[in-house]
Amino acid sequence: MEFKEAKNKFVQTWGALGSQWGINKTMAQIHALLMVSSEAVSMEDVMEELQISRGNASMNLRALMDWGIVYKEYKAGERREFFTAEKDLDELAVKIARERSKREIKPALKILKEVSSIKASDSIEEKHFIDQTTKLYDFVLKADNVLDKITEYKDNWLTKLVVKFMK
Amino acid sequence: MEFKEAKNKFVQTWGALGSQWGINKTMAQIHALLMVSSEAVSMEDVMEELQISRGNASMNLRALMDWGIVYKEYKAGERREFFTAEKDLDELAVKIARERSKREIKPALKILKEVSSIKASDSIEEKHFIDQTTKLYDFVLKADNVLDKITEYKDNWLTKLVVKFMK
DNA sequence: TTAAACTTTCAAAAATAAATGAAAGTTTAT
DNA sequence: ATAAACTTTCATTTATTTTTGAAAGTTTAA
């Protein structure tokens, strides 16, 4: 396999993986492309390499920046903007984890708290509902807290996790 | 908020959450419904409660069983099948983690190994590609191994993680 | 200012994913 | 064996998500 083929395969695979995780394909592909680019890449280049429209490139680059995993760069004497991806993997994972916690877990917790707080009637059905959603709330809260703690380490959190957990 | 409203809110929320995680909405809704049901539920009931077609119910129940988080139950003297969800949250999380590892992480690792193994030319571009994909491979492999180890505990893995990590 | 060079927005179109429902398949009781 | 009771399959339809591209917006240089 030669370089161009490998690069393409990587971008495609990362894109497919993205869509299994609720991130759209193009967004994941752009991220993949930037990850393996040694130089900052212009929007024009992204469009060209992935064969996508200007609007698509613009919107997905913006979304990646909102996630904090892609940065704008300005080159001296160049008018157009260039983009680079967060390349440190610990940092990348931490940012993704924090963002998903904020966007998905926290709102879900709020709902779980709400629905588990209804006053119980005598029916087994309702008792079970309250019991199960309460357990779920506790579980998700605990998991979210662990995630928080882990990502606090920032650098080498994975290594630290290995050390703490494997021994 | 009264029971019916709370139940509905829970099912809807779980469904929305599912789609952000690559699971289809109905599948997540069925799972939610079964999770909070004290009794095993028939396909007919699922169709009725979620207002979905027979085919849809059948296919998604099957998918949930493939994931190992929903079980068929047979009631004496009843011809039709009933379904229950895995209600133990530790067990549920372990099954989901293992299945996603098998379906998504393992295949991704295979590709990462492949593309990071191309022979390097002298260009900075290619060197960077190999370097970055190799790092990614190592990182994902390490993460997958930690996941493996954690889920080996099965019961109370989360509690154990809290204990090990918070101290 | 003006205009060139660039980016963003968003309504419409295209692509993709999910749901339907009727026919085919299966199981069980008689 | 037959038929009733139930489940599964899958071609077609429907709904959702993503992409396009042209117009509007912004920035910079002169």
From TrEMBL, chains A, B:
InterPro entries (UniProt xref) = ArsR-like_HTH, HTH-GbsR_regulator, MJ1563, WH-like_DNA-bd_sf, WH_DNA-bd_sf
Q: Per the record's keyword annotation, is Calcium included, yes or no?
A: no
Gene3D superfamilies from the UniProt entry: Winged helix-like DNA-binding domain superfamily/Winged helix DNA-binding domain (1.10.10.10)
Q: Please provide the Gene Ontology terms (biological process) for this protein.
A: regulation of DNA-templated transcription
**The entry's keywords:** DNA-binding, Transcription, Transcription regulation
Recorded GO terms, molecular function? DNA binding
Q: Which domain of life is it from?
A: Bacteria
| Family per similarity comment | Belongs to the GbsR family.
Protein name, entry field: HTH-type transcriptional regulator
**Which species is this UniProt entry from?**
Flavobacterium pygoscelis
